[in-house]
Write a structure and sequence with these properties.
The chain is of the alpha/beta class. It has one domain. The chain contains 6 helices and 7 strands. The chain has a 7-stranded parallel sheet with strand order 3-2-1-4-5-6-7, sandwiched between helices. α3 links the parallel β1 and β2. α2 packs across α4.
Length: 217
């Protein structure tokens, strides 16, 4: 089956069903079944992992942990040595920078199916950062040379649910108090849990320090 036939099949299957968007609450397994034909096609081609490439995946566009990490990478000139792909739901542009490419995750504005380009990058970028587990069911097809980091969009004391399989290499949590609970939540070894806080915490601390300094003047 070629790529055009697969795209047509996926779109037809979605035309009368749920559209993939944040408010739908589509489960990871259901989303993965829609992406699987494209993934198998990509895997069959055996593309190599591209060294010094970073893929940033987010739903929240210009906010949250992925966007904060993106700003950090740019401000510290990581784009001088890394090719950075910023994948959003609407291919937003947050500025023209060297070695930065903005990628649309979906094939159309209605967000009915993930694009071949998006999945290809997910399968070939060396480092992948994301925030929503339900968006990355395809990680089970990841190549050994890839590193996946779950930045998460928030941390709570939820109980474990079936959808939270461990596909990542590392996940961030706010502090050490969360290591034990998240070890059970994800069913993973504690070495995969990094209690270093979220990227947005650095922004909060920076602003708090600046406000405090102004108060001393």
């Amino acid at each position: 089956m070629n790529i055009k036939k697969i795209r047509k099949k996926v779109r037809r299957g979605l035309s009368t069903g749920h559209r993939i968007r944040k408010s739908d609450g589509v489960k990871a397994e259901a989303r993965f079944m829609l992406e699987k034909p494209l993934l198998l096609l990509i895997k069959k081609k055996k593309p190599a992992v591209q060294k010094n490439t970073i893929l940033l995946m987010t739903r929240t566009e210009a906010s949250g942990n992925v966007y904060t990490l993106f700003r950090y990478l740019i401000e510290h000139h990581y784009n001088d040595t890394y090719k950075i792909y910023y994948m959003t739901e609407h291919r937003n542009n947050f500025g023209d920078y060297k070695n930065v490419e903005y990628v649309d995750k979906f094939v159309d504005r209605e967000r009915r199916a993930v694009s071949y380009r998006a999945l290809y990058l997910a399968y070939t970028c060396q480092y992948v950062f994301y925030t929503h587990s339900s968006d990355v069911g395809w990680i089970r097809y990841a190549q050994d040379e890839q590193i996946f980091v779950n930045l998460w969009h928030g941390c709570s004391f939820k109980t474990n649910i079936a959808a939270n399989h461990t596909f990542f290499d590392y996940v961030l949590v706010p502090g050490r108090i969360f290591v034990e609970t998240k070890k059970e939540f994800f069913g993973c070894h504690p070495s995969k849990i990094l209690p270093i806080g979220y990227p947005v915490y650095d922004v909060f601390k920076k602003h708090a320090a600046e406000d405090y300094a102004r108060g001393l003047k």
